[in-house]
Amino acid sequence: MVDELGETAERVLQFIQNNPGCHLRKIKEMIQISQGTVQYHTDRLEKIGRITSNRSGLYKHYFPVGVFQNNEKEILQILGQETARQVLMFIMEQHAPTQTDIVNSIGISAASVFWHIKRLIELRLVDEVKEGKYKRYQLHDRKVSSKYITTLMRNYYPAIWERWSDRLIEIFLSMSRSEKK
Asked: pLDDT tens digits for 121-153?
C-alpha cells in the first residue's frame, strides 16, 4: 500500500490507526512534518475513504474507517484531551461528585469544569443529578460507559491506562484498609 499512498501518507495513516481520535496538531508534532503536509494527506486519505473525521469545536479528530462506532469516537476524543479526560476519570472514580469536588481535585476554574461537564452531558457520557441545592455528576450508564471507556483507554491509550489503573488499585487498597478498621 506504500506505493499507492506514498511514504508520508502511509506514516499519517499509520499514526491515525495507532492513535484514533488524534487531531491535526498532534499528528504534526508526533510525525514531525509541517501542518500543511499533514492537512494535505489527511484530506487525501479522507477523500479516498481510508480515514474519517469528526469536528469538535476548533478540532477535527481523525479515525480509521470502519473501526469505531460514533459513541466510541466521541469517547476517544475525550480520552485524547487531558482536561476532559481528568474530569471524566474523576467522575468515574467518585461516582457522583459535585462541580466543586471536581474543581478542587483537578485544580481548574469552575467555568472550565462546567464547560467540560456540559460537553460530557451532550455526548451522553455523564448525567446531571440534582440533590437538594447541589448538582452531582455521574456516568450516564455506569456499567456500559465504564466498560467502553476502560476498554478504549486500555487499547488506545496504554500509558494513560497504566497511570489510571494504579490510581484504581490505590482506591481499592484504601477501601479495604478502612473496612478492616
From this structure: 988 889 999 988 899 999 887 766 677 777 787
How far apart (Å, rounded) are the C-alpha atoms in residues 167 and 114? 24
Residue 25 and residue 27: Cα distance in Å, rounded? 5
Indicate the residue among 16, 51, 67 that finishes a domain.
67
**pLDDT value of position 1:** 42
The contacts of residue 121 (CB under 8 Å, 6+ apart) are: 127, 128
Structural domain range at position 19: 2-67
**Is residue 61 domain-shared with residue 112, that is, in the same domain?**
no
Sheet holding 22-23, edge to edge: 22-23, 59-64, 51-56
| Whole-structure pTM value | 0.67
pLDDT at 19 over 80: yes
CB 128 within 8 A of CB 137: yes
